[in-house]
Each structure stands twice: as structure tokens, then as C-alpha cells.
Amino acid sequence: MFAALFYVIGVLLALNRVREKCVTRSVPVPEGTKSGDPLVLGAGKIPAVALIDRGKDTEDEATVQMSLGSFEFEVTGKEKEEKEKAIEVGDPVYLKGGKLSADSGGDLFGYAMEPVAKGKAGTIEVKLAAV
């Protein structure tokens, strides 16, 4: 009973709330974005994955999933200046030029849930970084 009361009070106190959980949303994305592409949105650097091709919702938008979940991507075990680096479970994965790697010169995208050998590329599970 108390939980329901607190929920009702919370709803009444936040009359400006649009979504309780903003996980998926249609947003502007770069031209050529396809379903499954990794993205980092805006100055806030929100990691996201396109769920549909650009233009399916509106001309310059696509529905994306942001900050929650994990997806399979090809990730390369290389960092700055093509220096080889192994990726271990839990290591940060960065997005730079549309590619995911260990290169911290890119934007933080997520965390490796599987290893990648030094200098190699592999399709692994990547957990999106929470913002």
C-alpha cells in the first residue's frame, strides 16, 4: 500500500515528466545510418545503437536505443597510432570514425563483455556505457 502511495505522490509531484525511462527514442542521426550501427549522440556523448535505418521514422531520424543493453559488434584490439592492445572483459570500448576499438581517442561507447586478442578484430558483446 505504501509503495502505491509513494508512486502516486511521485507521479503527482513530477507533472513535467515525459518518460519514466528514456531508453528508445527517434532522434536525428548521421546520413547513411543503418540498423545496428553504433552511435554517440550529441555533446553529451550518449552511446546508442540504431534500431532502424535512418529515414524510416522521418527523413533525418532513426529510432535508437540509448545507454542500456548490450549488442554484438566488431571490435579491434588497437589503440592510438595503430598500437596493438588486447581487450579484456570490462575494458572500455571507444567509437571513432564509425569503428569500435580500444582507441581512447574516440568517444566512450561501452565495455567489452568478451576478450579480443592483441591487434586482432573480433565480434564480441559490448555493454553500452550508462550516461
Care to describe what's here?
The mean pLDDT is 88. A hairpin with a 2-residue loop joins strand 6 and strand 7 (99-101). The relative contact order is 0.18. The chain is globular. The longest helix is centred in the first third of the chain and has 12 residues, at 2-13. It is built from one helix and nine strands. The protein is mostly beta strands and 131 residues long. The strands form two sheets. It has a five-stranded mixed β-barrel with strand order 5-7-6-8-9.
The number of distinct structural domains comes to 2
Residues in helices, as a percent range: under 10%
**N-to-C CA distance:** 33 Å
- Mean model confidence by pLDDT: 88
Estimated share of beta-strand residues: 35-45%
**Roughly how many Å is the radius of gyration?**
18 Å
Query: What letter string, H or E per element, gives the SSE order?
Result: HEEEEEEEEE
Low-confidence spans: none
Biggest beta sheet attributes: 5 strands, mixed, barrel
| 3D shape | globular
Enumerate the strands of the largest sheet in spatial order, edge to edge or round the barrel: 5-7-6-8-9
> What is the count of β-strands?
9
Pairing-aware structural class of the strands and helices? Answer: mainly beta
Number of helices: 1
Give a nutshell description of this structure.
The chain has 1 helix and 9 strands, in the order αβββββββββ. 9% of the residues lie in helices and 37% in strands.
Key words describing this protein structure:
131 residues, mainly beta, 2 domains, 1 helix, globular
